[in-house]
C-alpha cells in the first residue's frame, strides 16, 4: 500500500504534535513566519489570477491557486496555526500536554501574523498592486471586515474543517505528488465556498488597509460608506477574533476530537 490508513494518520498526527511542541523559540518563530508568508503569497496569487474573472470561474480559480500556499507549508516545511488546530489529538491520547500546545499555538499565531505583514510590506513596495489588482484587494478586505461576528465564526469553522482535513490527507501520501493532490481539493473547496481563514486574513486585511490610503484605488473601488467605516484596525480585530475562534473549533472538534473517539482504543493502546 502506497498510502497510510486513517489509523496510521491519527498516530502520525500524535507524533507531529510532540514534534511541534519540541521546537525552541527560534525554530517556532522562523517556521511560523514562513507559514504566514507562504499563505500570504497564496492570497496574493489568488488576487492576481481572479481580479478580472467572472463568477464561478473566479471562485474555482481562487481556490485552485490559493492551495499553493498550503502546499508550500506542508511540503516545504513551516508552521501554520490553522493546521496546528489538530494538535489536541496528541493531548487527548496523552502524548502531549495541552499547556505546551497552547504555548505553541500562541507563538505560531503571532509568527504567522508577522510573516503576513512581511509579505504585505514587500508586495506594497513592488507596486504590482496598482490598478485592478489593488481594487480587487480592497473589495476582498472590505467584504471580510463587514462580516457580522456569527457569520465570520461559522465560516471559520467550515474553513478549518477543510484545511485540517487537507493536512490530514497529506499525511496519507508517501510521495510529493500525492500530497499536492491531497491538499488541492479541500483547499479549493474552502476558498471557492467563501469560508474564512485567520492566517489568510492576516494578509488580506492589512494589505487592504494599506491600499485604502491610495486615493486613486479608493476612488476606483467605489466602496460604500458602511464599508469604509469598518475598514480600520478595529475592523481587522473584529474579523480575526471570530474567524480564529471558528478555525479552532473546526480543527479541534471535527478532526482532533472526532478521530480520537473513532480510534480511541487503538490510539490509547499504542500510546
UniProtKB/TrEMBL annotation:
Cellular localization per UniProt: Membrane
UniProt-recorded name of the protein: Formate/nitrite transporter
Family: Belongs to the FNT transporter (TC 1.A.16) family.
A molecular-function term among this protein's GO annotations: formate transmembrane transporter activity
Domain of life: Bacteria
Positions of transmembrane segments: 28-45, 57-81, 102-124, 152-169, 181-205, 240-262
Bilayer disposition of the protein: Multi-pass membrane protein
Main location, first listed in the record: membrane
Gene3D superfamilies registered for this protein in UniProt: Glycerol uptake facilitator protein (1.20.1080.10)
Entry keyword set: Membrane, Transmembrane, Transmembrane helix
GO cellular component: plasma membrane
Coiled coil location: none
One Pfam family per UniProt: Form_Nir_trans
